[in-house]
Amino acid sequence: MSINATLFVQAVVFLLLVLFTMKFVWPPIAKALDERAQKIAAGLAAAEKAKAELASANQRVEQELQASRTETSNRLADAERRAQQIIEEAKARATEEANKIVAAARDEAEQQSVRAREVLREQVATLAVKGAEQILRKEVDANVHADLLNRLKTEL
């Protein structure tokens, strides 16, 4: 055989091989490559979507944390205001109770003072009668002179 014939036969065999490959081998490979490219694209899209969702979730978490901090500070402020109000109420009640105790003590002191005056009047009247008795050197009848003694008590 000659080189030309061999070259021609090799070219025909190569063309048949290329046609066979293009008809039967290349479509499944191209299909597999396309499917793989679609899977990669879908994976990248899912990753981007997950990244966006993560950013959104982080933002929501940050908002919730801020709301929680605000609510906590509001509750603390309310608790402090309530504590101050309770303290003020307790002070007012204590002042009121102290005023009542002072008033009761004043009333008691006044009553004791009145009782002491009465006792003192009785003692002064008795002493006056004894003094008059000694001056007159005779006994004075207290029942007879009760009116006189009562007037003397009121004057004292």
What does this entry show, briefly?
The chain is mostly helical and 156 residues long. Helices cover 92% and strands 0% of the residues.
Structure explained in plain terms:
This protein is mainly alpha-helical and 156 residues long. It has one domain (3-155). It has helices at 3-136, 146-155. The model has no long low-confidence stretch (mean pLDDT 87).
Task: Please describe the structure with a list of short key phrases separated by commas or semicolons.
156 residues; mainly alpha
- Strand percentage: under 5%
| Percentage of residues assigned to helices | over 70%
Give a count of the beta strands, DSSP E runs of length 2 or more: 0
Mean pLDDT: 87
Distance between the termini: 172 Å
Count of alpha and pi helical runs? 2
| Helix and strand element order | HH
Compile the SSE list and pairings.
Blueprint lengths: L2 H134 L9 H10 L1
Helix pairs in contact: 1-2
